[in-house]
Amino acid sequence: MNRKSKTKNKKTKRALVCGAGGFIGHHLVNRLRKEGFWVRGVDLKYPEFSKTSAHQFILGDLRDQKLCQRILDIPFDEVYQLAADMGGAGYIFSGEHDADVMHNSATINLNIAHYGTRVGIKKLFYSSSACIYPEYNQLDENNPKCSEESAYPAAPDSEYGWEKLFSERLFMAYRRNYGLNTKIARFHNIFGPEGTWRGGKEKAPAAVCRKVAEVKNAGRIELWGDGKQTRSFLYIDECLDGVRKLMNSKDFHGPANIGSDEMVNINQLAQIVIDLSGKKLTISHIKGPLGVRGRNSDNKLIYRKLKWKPKIPLKDGLEKTYKWISEQVDRTVRLIQ
Fold first, then answer.
1. pLDDT band at residue 10, thresholds of 50, 70 and 90?
2. Dist. CA 191–CA 203, nearest whole Å
3. pLDDT, position 94
4. Per-residue pLDDT reduced to its tens digit, 152-190
5. Residue 267: CA count within 13 A, CB half-sphere
6. I want to staple 184 with a disulfide (CB 3.0 to 4.6 A). Which of 45, 108, 135, 254 is the partner?
7. pLDDT computed for residue 336 by the predictor
8. Distances from the Cα of 151 to the Cαs of 184, 231, 257, in angstroms?
9. Which CATH number fits domain 13-191+235-258: 3.30.310.10, 3.30.360.10, 1.20.1740.10, 3.40.50.720?
């Protein structure tokens, strides 16, 4: 290697993405590669739908302290801690996975904070969740309150939310006591192509897209609850824009919402997808886990601090997502036949 190549390599920023086999982590690796980072990805599994673009991908369990010591062997310029035990409403709100969700995610975060501090990483991003917000502020589907300061007095509606809130405080404590430069974002329902779309851990947009894609014209899809519960959904590209703005900020650490403020109810979400499909379908409502009655991202703080706000309408993001999931459904049907 010549001297010029060595100089270039010394200037290349290095990033570690924990959870790089997951939906957001996989897209984040691609984004960082495009920005010129050398990227190491770590996860229990490879990305499901396309090959990782990470320069180095390590299969391993981040609950294992020895693995964390091995992957945190250099002072990375940026570490992204996205790894968690998570899933959609059917997984989080059933109550059957509470102990595992809390233990697994907390263990990962404790390991990353501890060993990341020891090796001297320069900057760490932690992906928290809108699930940390108190249930008492989200009982009215038309007027939910999810501003950052409303997180306390704390009363999340799930153990997943409680663990996320604990880990926020963990990383903030490491910033105060050990100087770890942490950045924290609270994600609000991120969706897009190459996300989980079946199996019980999929989120609402993917589940609705799958149901619409699987049923024939003049058929019927089922939704949990009365469909009047409200949410906002953020397309993956917009999420990454917000994450990168937060990481590049000098004095703002969060926690900050990264989500859309285009609130819809689940019936409206389903109707948008049905319209995109060109099918004429009916909706029936059944019992199922629901979460809070209403939730919408409050973006005032992040806009004031970073001038970030989403630009892609929900319909446009759903159009891309439905097209991709419809292709997956068709491929699955062909394989079965």
1. low
2. 8
3. 76
4. 999 999 999 999 999 999 999 999 999 999 999 999 999
5. 11
6. 254
7. 75
8. 14, 17, 11
9. 3.40.50.720
Q: Which of 115, 160, 174, 235 is catalytic?
A: 160
- Fold classification of 204-231+262-295+312-336 (topology level): UDP-galactose 4-epimerase; domain 1 (3.90.25)
The reply to whether 13-191+235-258 and 204-231+262-295+312-336 are identical in fold is no
152 assigned to active site: no
Break the chain into its structural domains and give their ranges. 13-191+235-258, 204-231+262-295+312-336
At residue 1, the pLDDT reads 41
Q: Stretch 116-136: mean pLDDT, rounded?
A: 97
Q: What percent of the chain has pLDDT over 90?
A: 89
pLDDT category, 337, cuts 50, 70, 90? low
CA–CA separation, 29 vs 53, rounded Å?
7
